[in-house]
Specification:
There is one protein chain. By secondary structure, the chain is α+β, with helices and mostly antiparallel strands. It has a single domain, classed as Aminopeptidase. It contains 5 helices and 8 strands, in the order ββααβββαβαββα. An 8-stranded mixed sheet has the order 1-2-3-4-5-6-8-7, with helices on both faces. A hairpin with a 3-residue loop joins strand 1 and strand 2. The longest helix is centred in the middle third of the chain and has 16 residues. The protein is globular and about 40 Å long. The protein starts with 6 loop residues before the first strand and ends with a helix.
């Protein structure tokens, strides 16, 4: 990807995560309770937020690359969350999806709307056949979201994740291009 793909939905603009988003990233990723399902320990300061932004930017330059979008409301400035496709295996035409949103914006359908845009983009532009997600078994909101988008559970990965000083089981989900094209997803 030379130019970062900007995606628009009816309520959202998805754009590159940039350094000026650091304070918003810190508010989301610094909240230990909110980030308990994210798969990494919370960041502690603006320097940590800047490093996370740099990590997202580096994905575009790596052989196993990806993209992380800032989720913003079309009518208001400021990042309310992020979502992305990463661990892109070009040979297998697969990748992994990840996402999070600020607590104040949960329950409004923003993540579903953003994911619809990036899943469509991934299947069309990256020519993906498979998009995977790994979710903590207790993260019921995320599990319901994935299932509403057509993802199917494929199994349990025992102690596959490590954060908050302990190992965590993760549920493996996947969505295939053929499912996405034929599904009636609202």
């Amino acid at each position: 990807m030379v130019d970062f793909p900007v995606l628009e939905t009816s309520r959202l603009t998805l754009r590159e995560v940039v350094e000026s988003d650091a304070a918003h990233i810190l508010r989301i990723h610094g909240d230990a309770e909110h980030m308990r399902w994210f798969g990494s320990d919370p960041i502690r300061d603006l320097d940590g937020a800047s490093k996370l932004i740099a990590l997202f930017a580096s994905w575009r330059k790596e052989p196993v690359s990806g993209a992380r979008w800032a989720v913003t409301l079309r009518d208001r400035p400021g990042l309310i969350g992020t979502c992305g496709l990463f661990r892109w295996n070009r040979n297998w035409r697969s990748c992994t999806v990840g996402y999070e949103i600020a607590p104040a914006h949960q329950g409004r359908g923003y993540v579903k709307e953003a994911l619809k845009a990036i899943l469509t983009w991934g299947f069309r532009e990256m020519r993906l056949n498979r998009i995977e997600a790994q979710v903590h078994p207790d993260n019921t909101a995320s599990l319901a979201l994935l299932e509403a988008l057509g993802f199917l559970q494929e199994g349990r990965q025992r102690e596959a994740g490590y954060w908050a000083d302990r190992h965590h089981d993760l549920l493996q989900y996947a969505l295939l291009n053929a499912q996405w094209r034929t599904a009636n997803v609202d």
